[in-house]
Amino acid sequence: MATTLTHRLEYDAPLADVAAMLADPAFREEVCAYQRVLRSSVTVDVDGGITTVVVEQAQPANGIPGFARKFVGDEIDIVQREEWSSPEAADLHVTIPGKPGQMVGTITLEESAGRTTETVDVRIKVNIPLVAGKLEELIAGLLRKALVAEGKVGRDYLSR
Q: 81 pLDDT band (50/70/90 cuts)?
């Protein structure tokens, strides 16, 4: 079994501006700071027609239910890798190193009338019998919260 999540972010900006923002390490660091992560690093690499964005961060496990805390500990290390094959589309892969599970999906950008919609579609899979569904739902909630934060920071970024 796996849990799926689709989340849309709306930006009052052209697709080119949103794509540039998502490839800007300063924007990614700003999102991490807004979420009050413990540590973070961002790398952006362009090779041929592929732009790879990697965000590594450590988040405190505050507020995580007890059943989940025993799996993640006091902090959660997250590695998010996006491979943008064009300004409109990326493959997304998120892992928690050393933990059994992953998130795999896509990010798409679509412009209409000068506004851009970013759609994040992910499949969350945890390989721990008996509690996998609960952990997947917990991760989906955390991801949704992170995407809301990214949207807020993104709208502020694009308004400058």
A: very high
Domain that holds residue 19: 3-159
Nearest to 61 by CA among 158, 159, 138, 144: 138
Domain containing residue 68: CATH number: 3.30.530.20
DSSP classification of residue 136: H
Contact criterion met (CB below 8 Å) for 126 and 135: yes
pTM for the model: 0.93
The sheet that has 89-95: what strands, in order across it? 3-11, 115-126, 101-112, 89-95, 75-86, 50-60, 39-47
pLDDT, residue 116, reads: 98
CB 51 within 8 A of CB 84: yes
Residues 6+ apart with CB under 8 A from 160: none
